[in-house]
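B., you asked whether I could sanity-check this one before it goes into the benchmark set. Here's the sequence:
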Amino acid sequence: MRSRRTIGEARWPGLAEFVTLAKAWQTDAITQLLGFVWRAYDLLCERVLSQIDCAQADLDLERNITQLLEPLIREVMPGCVPYYVQHAPHEFETALEAPAQPPLPDIGFVMRANPRIMWPLEAKAIRTDKAVSAYVKEIQENFLTCRYAPFSKEGGMLAYLVAGDPSTAFENIAARLASKLEDHPRFPERNHKTSKHQRSVPAGKRYARGFQCHHMIFPLSDSTE
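And here's what the prediction gave me:
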């Protein structure tokens, strides 16, 4: 791992401060920010997806949708929340020595009081409800190794489903993860489930071992719902 410090590490070095600030990522706050994501998806459907056939407009689909989604999240967020949303923020905490690039989740909710603390969302385009291998790999290699969300006990995955049934996709994700997926009690009408895991924490780090992953499936057309 790195021995040199980033600007963020120099400005906000204390672990005790992280523990205090990370408490802001309580259930209500996380439910609130997830609600912003779902409202942004509704706007994306209304303004973009309902006007096109994504099966015929699939060049760089994952990046296209994520880049459209992030400003819509910002649009529905009030200015009084203690975090801001950012497209493709670097996770400097788990970066290796240069020239390696820091991990780069697709969307991050970043604490205003300490920008080193981030609640990440990773996005994957899923062509069919059976094609979940890349989606599960992101969870296993990034979230469950603490590369993403080192200072948070939760994080989220966005699945952009091109064709198929969300329920079948959830079943296949659960099977690949060997983990039970449960409905989120605050979003019963949405394609939103959670799973619980134990992370592999790097030696010498005091990151939380227990981790909850949010699984949010965004159908890209009416035929997938």
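One thing to flag: The radius of gyration is 17 Å. Otherwise nothing jumped out at me.
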